[in-house]
Amino acid sequence: MRLLQAKPATVRRFMNVWPPFAFTGIRITRLDPGYWGACVRLRSYWWNKNVAGVHFGGSLFAMTDPFWMMLLLHHLGRDHVVWDRAAEVEFLKPGKGEVRVEFALDPADVERLRTLASGGAKVLEWFSADVVDSTGDVVARVRKQVYVRQKRDPNVLPEPNLLEATHE
Predict the structure, then answer these.
(1) Separation CA 12–CA 4 (nearest Å)
(2) For the ranges 3-17, 29-43, 73-87, 92-106, which has the lowest average pLDDT?
(3) Max alpha carbon distance in the chain (Å)?
(4) Burial 108-144 (b: 16+ CB within 10 A, else e)
(5) How confident is the prediction for the chain on average, in pLDDT?
(6) Can you tell me the distance from the alpha carbon of 126 to that of 92, in angstroms, rounded to the nearest whole number?
(7) Alpha carbon distance 65, 131 (integer Å)
């Protein structure tokens, strides 16, 4: 979480040398000043192609992996738990050359999730992003389900479960 309090340019530089991105050819080209969006690209190299000579599907997924969670976590803050819960990838055409994906978080979605998660309620929300090639054709559609919950106050004891509180 501390990293997300840094300036976006610092986070972008750090993530670009982070081994899961650096060693696959993934680069964050833009991380908005307000953490409302990002743009990520993947160039084609011999080490990130599959046996058919096109982008390895794992790299296409990896370039989308942390962003919805990261953007939400920045805006919801330390008093919320934000995790990736599930993912779906639909490969629509072979990825060749440079591909990119854009993320744009809507402030209304952040406030809606904050309201739904208030009081510790569990919220599951799906977000979608399209990986596109240099012609704008969609190569892959990635959906991520994010888990959001407001953290419980550690000073408030939970109500006892009457079924488990029986004594003999």
Answers:
(1) 10
(2) 3-17
(3) 72
(4) eebeebbebbeeeeebebebebbbbbeeeeebbebeb
(5) 89
(6) 19
(7) 12
| Upper half-sphere CA count for residue 51 (Cβ side, 13 Å) | 0
Q: Is residue 62's pLDDT more than 60?
A: yes
Q: Report pLDDT for 48.
A: 87
- Taking a C-beta distance cutoff of 8 angstroms, is the pair 42, 59 a contact? yes
Residue type, 157: L
**Amino acid in the structure at residue 137:** D
Tokens found for residue 4: 């997300």
Model-level pTM greater than 0.70? yes
- pLDDT over 90 for what percent of the chain? 76
Do β-strands 99-104 and 123-133 pair in parallel, antiparallel, or remain unpaired?
A: antiparallel
State how far the Cα of 28 lies from the Cα of 130, in Å rounded to an integer: 15
